[in-house]
Amino acid sequence: MDSGLAALLGAAVGSATTLGAAIVNGRAQARSQHAQWNRQRRRDAYADYLGALHDRDIAMDAVLDALRSDHPDLPDIDEKIGRFITLAREVHRACEVVILEGPAPLTEVVERVTDASKDLSHVMRRLARNAHVGDTTHKAEDTALAAERERILYRAVKDFRLAARSVIDKTD
């Protein structure tokens, strides 16, 4: 084999090797970028959900605080309940995005948060309904029940935060 052919063959092998390495590196980089994009989408969805929960919970606290009064200001309570309902819709919207982004095990945790939220809002509505008719018969019991349901909701939200962090960490 003459030196010209050997040089040409060497150049072809070198080019093929370089091209193969570039393809492999390009695919690895594309997978890494896709994983980063996916993680960021999930992080944003989870953060939006937690933010919506926080805002809604502050509104619920305002309603419950107003209902604890011996002489509740009913128009004020109704206004606060309206704000709570608006924010609860935002939580529902954010929840749907979290469910869409997944993964499935996180959906189970979201359902626990939703159930705990419903349980607390039922007590809040009963307190409001009784305040409107002037019935204080079960006020002390319902106030204690609301406090217990708030603790359950707080634990469910805490579990969501931990599960979301776990999902995000696994995609790193």
Question: What would a concise description of this structure say?
Answer:
The protein is mainly α and 172 residues long. 90% of the residues lie in helices and 0% in strands.
Label this structure with key terms.
single chain, 172 residues, mainly alpha, A middle domain of Talin 1, 4 helices
Describe this structure in words.
The structure is a single chain. This protein has 172 residues and is mostly helical. It has one domain: A middle domain of Talin 1 (Up-down Bundle). Helix content is 90%, strand content 0%. It contains four helices and no strands. Helix 1 (3-67) runs antiparallel to helix 2 (74-101). The longest helix is centred in the N-terminal third of the chain and has 65 residues, at 3-67. The protein is rod-shaped, with a radius of gyration of 28 Å. The mean pLDDT is 87.
CATH topology: A middle domain of Talin 1
CATH class: Mainly Alpha
CATH architecture: Up-down Bundle
**Quick one: CATH superfamily?**
Talin, central domain
Distance between the termini: 52 Å
Instruction: State the major sheet.
Output: none
Number of E-state strands: 0
Q: Hey, roughly how much beta strand do the residues contain?
A: under 5%
Low-confidence runs:
none
What number of domains? 1
Mean pLDDT across every amino acid position:
87
Radius of gyration: 28 Å
Element string (H = helix, E = strand): HHHH
Helix content, binned percent: over 70%
Number of helices: 4
